[in-house]
Amino acid sequence: MKEKLENLVTLVKKELDAVSKEAEILNLKAKYIGKKSEFSNLLSSLKEMSTDEKKVYGPLLNSKKKELEALFTTKIESLNNNIETDFDETLPVNINTGSLHPVTLIAKEITEVLKRMGFTVLQGLEMEDDYHNFEALNIPKDHPARDMQDTFYLDNGKLLRTQTSGDQVHAMEKYNVPLRICSPGRVFRNEDLDASHENTFFQLEGMVVDKDIKIENMFYVMKELLNEVFHQDVKMRVRPGFFPFTEPSFEMDMCCLICNGKGCPTCKNSGWIELIPGGMVHPNVLKKSGIDPDKYTGFAFGIGLTRLAMMKYKINDIRYLNSGDLRALKKFEIE
Ligand code: DAH
Prior knowledge:
alpha+beta; BirA Bifunctional Protein, domain 2; seven-stranded mixed sheet; two-stranded antiparallel sheet; binds 3,4-dihydroxyphenylalanine
């Protein structure tokens, strides 16, 4: 038996020397030590042997099996090593690195400025409940303001948030006062698409609540913010607006930078871009989140990040931004 096994090892070595592909090695392995191999039959025959025979042949067969297995493993490893050394490191490669989306870039830039002003950056959830998206923001079930924001409702009773304003509520619940937060994120509305409307876009919510906060604080912060983001003295104008969660409410516009205020399709020939709605936080909103409106006041705003990116990077069609066209999206960077 011993001699037979030695011969087998020699034979396997010889056959392995003659092959160079992994599949061939595996075939040999199956042939010589696989389930249907003669070697396997020898191993099975151990069962029928006497105790004395088992003592002799058991260790012998097992050590030979290990030796044979090692032969196959070593051969396969040597193949893999060869693959590495065969690799030509000097061959030219096509390095196609990714780039950040313009909305990501603008969100990064604007939150950096806000952080310097003492704002904490939060991140809300895209799946929101009715309470945080509407109810807590002074928009009860039958309120007409719900029609302003066509909502995608989900089967689980929740909804895709139509605005980042719900993050104001989460922040008040979690941190109470004084509060200075901002929260960039994606929002959804069931809208038809055109050059300036998307069903998925980005906003940045901001809220400051403290003692003696006045509307002029908001105008100052907004003006500073835009000047920093655009690296120039940005022309702004303020109009009255309406939102159920702010009183008084405003619309803050910036001079269209695509046409420098002359009028173009992006600004609908008005020379102005509606960019930042906001106002003084409605006392009902503070009250609902457990803050005493007689002691504290605050302002809130919701910047249209997508529009801001369009202005910053002079993109005249909103659909570019969700197009996934890398040639279009690659050319933007932080100044
Ligand atoms: N959430 C509003 C919208 O999507 C925008 C907004 C208005 C946000 C006034 C605010 C605010 O924080 O005070 O139309």
